[in-house]
Amino acid sequence: MVLDRTAPKVRAICCIGAGYVGGPTCSVIAQRCPHIKVTIVDVNPVRIAAWNSDTLPVFEPGLDEVVKECRGRNLFFSTDIDDAIREADLIFVSVNTPTKKSGVGAGYAADLHYVEASTRRIASVSDAPKIIVEKSTVPCRTASSMRVILEANSRPGLRFDILSNPEFLAEGTAIRDLSAPDRVLIGSLSTPEGKAAARALAAVYENWVPPEKIFTTGLWSSELSKLAANALLAQRISSINAMAAICEATGADVDEVAHACGLDARIGPKFLKASVGFGGSCFQKDILNLVYLSDSLGLPQVAAYWKQVITMNEYSKARFAQKVVQTLFSTITNKKIAVLGFAFKKDTGDTRETAAISLCKDFRSENALVSIYDPKVPEAQIWLDLTEPGVVDDGQKVKQQVTIAASAIEACKDAEAVVIATEWDEFRTLDWATVYKSMKKPAFVFDGRSIVDAAALRKIGFQVHSVGKGPEIQDPVWA
Ligand code: UDX
Ligand code: UDX
């Protein structure tokens, strides 16, 4: 889109929320727009101190380099939220919007508490017009509520324009996704002021994104598009995971089925990798949100349709754990199970909704001894995840059942089975012969990501079960 002369110029940006989305997104904006001052603020001083240190709070390939290039130049991390709001022409609201744990819509609706708190703060400290951008994934029509709060709490006559600019980056590839996005979506009101605000934000992206990749829609379409995109992506994974169950029962190979389907240009090859189940902060939360929205709109059939994507994901995780138990002669009591990978996908240290939590919970409830290794997830985070209310009731027993290993080799020593929960590259190239020697026999590998060379492992002596790959069923020999 082409910049209009009447669009306000953005000279200073504030991002509220220095998390997985706000941090990398606004770091890349600072890198690509050296003429704009970007200040990322957060209520959490520990997080801000980490952003100002050599050990960033978010592991993301390429992020260190971007931050090193810009920090102190035009990129700043601060806890002084009010100052950054006052100074900015444009404010990204990038705080978390978790699923509500209690009250109306508990278990489904997004908790907008932090978005509202940020909006109230903007209203109370602003002394000049601002463009406010929803970066957080929010339910449809959140912008309306923000407008009411702003108007009721700000200086009379002060102008605020609200935009929706959902972020489509995926963790692990965030810098690549931000540097060369498939699209930048900006939702605004269709008033001249709304359009001018959208143009001002578009002009920021035009510093590095080709104009044809930046497109504008109405506010509500933009808000809903983020939920819709995540729902469609997650639905593909649940669909292929449903096929994986059929493959395991029939001897078909889900990777071959996915490849055959993906060659159809209408289907395409991406996001058809069968797995132990999807994780991450977005898919489950956003679908639950969509289910809640559909129900609230009196569309129970639509709600049930999307709910099934989550149900299938839960089934995939539980089915995988059951397979481990059944294969290990129906008992894993006191058996050591090595869990390789704890992050919800490779190249991130993020564990939100990771399938590994659910697997470890199931193995523990069967009284197994679990040894976990992940190259990037801090040990303290794993303990936190395993002792979350709802995951386990007895914090003490966790320490008797679970150990955290410093390497994959260490995790697998004396184990009866290895479970690959995350597709880290180092598990593909692990010295599997050494692993085999150190394990109890028969030695099992359960590949929840279908990444290892199963034939090579079988040659070593392993019994291998890969998700979506059934036992080879011989054709009947006809007399
Ligand atoms: C983001 C989005 O904002 C969320 O809506 C989307 O669905 C997923 O990605 P993310 O960046 O991953 O969330 O969340 P998180 O890493 O938890 O970061 C949010 C940050 O906001 C935290 O550092 C938190 O301390 C901060 N915060 C929260 C504030 O600064 N102020 C608040 O009032 C609340
Ligand atoms: C997702 C969306 O991809 C991104 O556009 C949005 O902004 C945020 O939510 P993210 O959750 O970071 O990003 O990672 P993604 O690559 O989508 O993976 C999500 C989960 O699905 C992971 O657990 C991953 O392992 C799993 N997955 C992904 C599969 O099981 N199979 C696939 O084919 C793809």
UniProtKB/TrEMBL annotation:
GO terms for biological process: glycosaminoglycan biosynthetic process; UDP-glucuronate biosynthetic process. InterPro entries: 6-PGluconate_DH-like_C_sf, NAD(P)-bd_dom_sf, UDP-Glc/GDP-Man, UDP-Glc/GDP-Man_DH_C, UDP-Glc/GDP-Man_DH_C_sf, UDP-Glc/GDP-Man_DH_dimer, UDP-Glc/GDP-Man_DH_N, UDPglc_DH_euk. It catalyses: UDP-alpha-D-glucose + 2 NAD(+) + H2O = UDP-alpha-D-glucuronate + 2 NADH + 3 H(+). The keyword Cell inner membrane does not apply. One of its GO terms (cellular component) is nucleus. The keyword Transferase does not apply. Pathway: Nucleotide-sugar biosynthesis; UDP-alpha-D-glucuronate biosynthesis; UDP-alpha-D-glucuronate from UDP-alpha-D-glucose: step 1/1. NAD(+) binds at residues 17-22, 42, 47, 95-99, 136-137, 171, 282-285, 352. GO terms for molecular function: NAD binding; UDP-glucose 6-dehydrogenase activity. It is an enzyme of class 1 (oxidoreductase). Substrate binds at residues 167-171, 226-230, 266, 273-279, 344-345, 449. Its EC number is 1.1.1.22. Keywords: NAD, Oxidoreductase. The active site is at C282 (nucleophile). Residues 338-454 form the UDP-glucose/GDP-mannose dehydrogenase C-terminal domain. It holds the Pfam family UDPG_MGDP_dh_N. Belongs to the UDP-glucose/GDP-mannose dehydrogenase family. PANTHER family: UDP-GLUCOSE 6-DEHYDROGENASE (PTHR11374:SF3), UDP-GLUCOSE DEHYDROGENASE/UDP-MANNAC DEHYDROGENASE (PTHR11374). NCBIfam families: NDP-sugDHase. This is UDP-glucose 6-dehydrogenase. The lineage of its organism: Eukaryota, Fungi, Dikarya, Basidiomycota, Ustilaginomycotina.
